[in-house]
Amino acid sequence: QVQLVESGGGSVPAGGSLRLSCVASGHTDSPYGYCTGWFRQAPGKEREGVASMYTGDDNTYYADSVKGRFRISHDNARNTLYLQMDSLKPEDTAVYYCAADFIACRVSGDASDFSYWGQGTQVTVSS
Question: Residue 97: is it exposed, middle or buried by C-beta count within 10 angstroms (0-12/13-18/19+)?
Answer without folding.
Answer: buried
